[in-house]
Amino acid sequence: MDKILSISYGELALKGLNRRYFEDQLISNIKRAIKDLGYEKIYKEQGKLYIEANEDDFPQMINRLKKVFGLVNISPCIRTEKNIEDIEKAAIEIMKEKTKNQAIKTFKVESKRADKTFPIKSPGLSRKIGGVILKNFSDLTVDVHKPDTILYIDIKQKAYIYTERIKGYGGLPVGTNGKALLLLSGGIDSPVAGFMMAKRGVEISAVHYHSYPFTSERSEEKVKELASILSRYTGKIKMFSVNILEIQKEINAKCKENEMTILSRRFMMRIAEKIALREGIHGLITGESLGQVASQTIQSLSVTNAAVNLPVFRPLIGLDKLDIVEIAKDIETYETSILPYEDCCTVFLPKHPVTKPKLEDIIKSEELLEVDSLIERALENMKVTIIE
Amino acid sequence: MIYLDNCSTTKPREEVVKIMYESMMDNFGNPSSLHRLGMKAEKRIREARKYIADFLKVDNNEIYFTSGGTESNNIAIQSFVNKMEKRGKHIITTKIEHPSVLNIMKYYEKHGFHISYLNVDEYGYISLEELRNSLRDDTILVSIMHVNNETGSIQPIEEIKNIIKEKNPNTLFHVDGVQGFGKIDISLKASGIDSYSFSGHKIHGPKGIGGLFIDKKHVISPIVFGGNQERGLRSGTENVTGIIGFGEAVKIMSEKYKEERQYVFELKEYFGNRIREEIDDIRINTSLDENSSPYILNISFRNVRGEVLLHYLEDKDIYVSTTSACSSKGTEKSHVLESMGLKDEEIEGAIRFCFSYENTKKDLDYTVEVLKESVTEIRQIIMR
């Protein structure tokens, strides 16, 4: 009898012939997440993964595993030989622990017999173990409809007994759905956007724009910190930092004040696309949410969009700010996002930015600028950091 | 590197670093231990306390070691209020105090005290008339900083004490001396100041160590309880290394400060005059005479963002401070400059230069050149 972790991964199981590929990626992501904690063994058995490790490490390990996409539930469980005495003993131990930690009055037992050679059928096994629990825990009663807790018994090569089902984020393992470049600012939205795309299996790189010395080096540190929080979900992130002060100065000097933001956004998209193509990345991700600010109206978004050919993913497009904040708090980027260091100096924020820009007008304004050489110069001074 | 941020912190003197290293290697005993090692550590603390007491011309047992200026202000103010609150619930302070004083006052305000915040004029000086009118029979405490950390304005501590004595002799007087200690003379005993706080790292000593003078006529209860170190007022194993370093810094300072102060005064005057003559559209927020600290010069560059200028200077290895930060939610304004009635653009463009004996005229010449270039460039961008 020993304590191990079991992991279920819902959506993956549906993926037909690709299943093996997804499973392998998931296992490699799990290994990466818990490598430094140390584990004995990870193995697959009939639709679930099992991790053998030191029980003292379970709380920290579960915390890390919750952040691995593709994983639906994590359960600390007891693994025993497939004989009824051991299963009974394990069931009692699990229920002892459960009743110690929580006020529980009712329970039920759910058995699943994947190994049909096991002599007792599932309903019989549930009844039998239920009886044992009733005998050992005098204040518990059975409730099959709304129990306070469910005792699960999986009969496979071995028997697995557990009550806890700790939810993961679901989604698909990072690395199974191509690569995209996240436009990462120090704000609340873009880290959430990165999180949501990574949850669909996308491998994330990030580009960050700043205007040092018009902005502080701390704002760059803050973005690195955000990337590092994000990397707990996505694995290592390659981050590109680009100084766009020269570009902003040029726009400021030559173009209309109210077009500053939209013109800057087009430059950011173009630079991002250049980096993406160079790095073999298939798309861009932004934290834009429709109507949130002037640069995120339909008209503004289509003008920024027209600057590039790669697909641009905007996973927050239909979310309210409050929803975004809620996710940011949940994934623990919020506290860092609201630190004061700005990555865009207020000097360059127009008082009344255009909300309905026309592409022709914007293109005309860009004719006043040496777009290509400005971008080239910005890229020459780009810094690259690997965030883990 | 040209370090002009000496009000934030100073570089420890080499002798200080050396003596601290030695003390950590050889003299790591706990002063409370009964054995020889403990005694040795206790002796070194006694020496350090003496250097400081001698410098301030007070008794050894009137000096308490703390973790720094913030803790000293907290101990003094909270202990005095605890002792005096039966007599009254009125406290006087100024609008330009350090947050470690202002935030205690805000706390007391929420808990039934009445706080009078004295106004300051356009150069950061309180009005003695307003002080006189604010003092009441139930005023238990006046807490005023000697030297302001943002502008360098020196408050007339002795005159303030005289007014307090005359209007209500029971009122206690705490002086936040963090920016004045070792820089601006003060006679604690002769003026009858009740408590005075100071810090190690502002005078080329280590961080994490500070001191508090409390006149021995006051019997006060601690606000933190423990093993009764520092005569029961500040429990906790002594920061022996910090104390030794602090003592050494004060010992050296005692010998050199008059000469260094004169040197720094001339630097500031020279630097201030050059900026005034060579850069236009500025406001010098610190007086260039003896009414302000020779160590501090605060200047507003109109149509410049202080933070941007700070980064321009940093790029040239020149380090200064600003108290307002560039933010999309509006600028975090300095409460000191705001109280002085400066316009928003003057607050946003304010830079604080703080000098030390290590700066040279050549450093400042270079700084003026970089300032001229940077200010011109930033203005071109901002004003367009």
Provide an overview of this structure.
The complex is a heterodimer of chains A (388) and B (384). Chain A has two domains: 168 residues, VC0802-like (2-Layer Sandwich); 209 residues, HUPs (Rossmann fold, 3-Layer(aba) Sandwich). In chain A, the strands form two sheets. In chain A, strands 1, 2, 3, 4, 5, 6, 7, 8 and 9 form a nine-stranded mixed sheet that branches. The model of chain A has no long low-confidence stretch (mean pLDDT 92). The relative contact order of chain A is 0.12. Chain A is α/β, with parallel strands linked by helices and 388 residues long. The two termini of chain A are 37 Å apart. Chain A has 13 helices and 15 strands. Chain B has 384 residues and is an alpha/beta fold. Chain B has twelve helices and twelve strands. The chains are: A alpha/beta (388), B alpha/beta (384). At the A-B interface, helix 7 of A face helix 9 of B.
Quick synopsis:
The complex is a heterodimer of chains A (388) and B (384). Chain A is α/β, with parallel strands linked by helices.
Question: Any descriptors?
Answer:
heterodimer; A: 388 residues; alpha/beta; VC0802-like; Rossmann fold; 2 domains; 9-stranded mixed β-sheet; 6-stranded mixed β-sheet; 13 helices; 15 strands; B: 384 residues; Aspartate Aminotransferase, domain 1; Aspartate Aminotransferase, domain 2; 7-stranded mixed β-sheet; 3-stranded antiparallel β-sheet; 12 strands; 14% strand
Largest sheet of chain A: 9 strands, mixed
Query: Quick one: how many beta strands of chain B?
Result: 12
The CATH superfamily of the largest domain in chain A is known as HUPs
Strand content of chain B: 5-15%
The number of helical segments of chain A is 13
Give the proportion of residues in helices of chain A.
Answer: 40-55%
Q: Biggest β-sheet of chain B: count, sense, barrel?
A: 7 strands, mixed
CATH superfamily of the largest domain in chain B: Type I PLP-dependent aspartate aminotransferase-like (Major domain)
**What is the molecular shape of chain B?**
globular
Structural class of chain A: alpha/beta
Distance between the termini of chain B: 32 Å
CATH fold naming of the largest domain in chain A: Rossmann fold
Residues in helix, % of chain B: 40-55%
CATH architecture classification name of the largest domain in chain A: 3-Layer(aba) Sandwich
